[in-house]
Amino acid sequence: MANTRPVLALSGAVLLGLTACGDFDFDMRNASNGFSTADAARQASADRPRADARGVISYPDYQVVVARGGDTVQTVAQRLGQNPVELARYNALTPDTALRAGEVLALPSKVATGGDIAVTTLAENAINRAEGGVSTPAPAAGSDGPQPTRHRVERGETAFQIARLYNVSPRALADWNGLNPEMEVREGQVLMIPVAAQLDRAAPEPVTQPGSGTPTPPPPSASTPMPEPAPPADMAAQAAEEARPPSPDLAQERTETPAATSFAMPVDGRIIRAYAPGRNDGIGIAASAGTSVRAAQAGSVAAVTKTTTGVNILVLSHANNLLTVYANIDTLAVEKGARVSRGQSIAKVAAGDPSFLHFEVRNGQESVDPMKYLN
């Protein structure tokens, strides 16, 4: 894998243009053909599907991962629970190869997807909001469209030749695979071939033969009865109100929070960030760096991951469809799938200014005020 990086955008554009001229076949070898317009006729490509919280895009038969800034093959493998040597070999790289943000790697084996990923994405977005960042909707981990063809680069092949082989634009091929501005590919690299965009085409207007005239719509018929006039607005509203069933008395159906869902404070400290739905889906509890973080209730480790800004997240699953989320932590003492008991040490508070624990309680995927559960 080449490590060349463009110093100036202009130099990158010049190199791109020179490379293009060297690889494109303008089909001018036969004077009778003239200048070819084949490149302009290449099919329009759809956008690459968005990745999930870990950067994974899933298809029925394979998965790929989109690298983040600062990633190496080793860190990507650790994030996904893959063997770094196997992941590197499958992509013709080495475990310590530095990756560009947006670079795509093919996965030699599938990683898990499902509910824990959705929970992690929700928790990450909540923490981004608490830190003043911008959250995004949970992206789809794959596509409802056709599965892209894969192409393993052979010796001597270029991105332009591969694009021409599959009748796609080089730019689309680069966007789908995170190629660098020089469009460099390496022997053994696995490329996704962009799929065609689904273009909306309106039904063609009926064509009449010359001299046959233009069809005219049928005139209104006196035999067809006119529609009944609509009732006045006030009468319609009154009828709807009378048909509406009585509202239930929710106060009589309210139940108290069961004792089994009362949680212990994960750290001892004062609340410095209050629960504010939509802005902060948890609370911030002040604590010194290195303070032990305790499991608020018995349960199992549903997810262990990081946000895009490098903040550790740990999610515990409890009875009654409840989840607890712990962030701004390090020195994690548990792994995904492990059982934990109430009060068990699961991590340490990370250093910060100030240092604090971000703590959430979720009923399913909906955040709730943690103070209603803490005792």
TrEMBL record:
Q: Give positions of region: Disordered.
A: 130-152, 202-259
Q: Name one Pfam family in it.
A: LysM
Presence of keyword Manganese: no
Indicate the segments forming the LysM domain, all copies. Answer: 149-193
Q: Which domain of life is it from?
A: Bacteria
Matches recorded under SMART domains: LysM (SM00257)
Which GO-annotated molecular functions does the record name? metalloendopeptidase activity
**What keywords is this UniProt entry annotated with?**
Hydrolase
For whether the record's keyword set contains Hydrolase, the answer is yes
Q: Where is the composition biased (Pro residues)?
A: 215-232
Q: CDD domains given for it? A: LysM, M23_peptidase
Please give the PANTHER family that the UniProt record associates with this protein: MUREIN HYDROLASE ACTIVATOR ENVC, PEPTIDASE-RELATED
Q: Could you identify this protein by its name?
A: Murein hydrolase activator NlpD
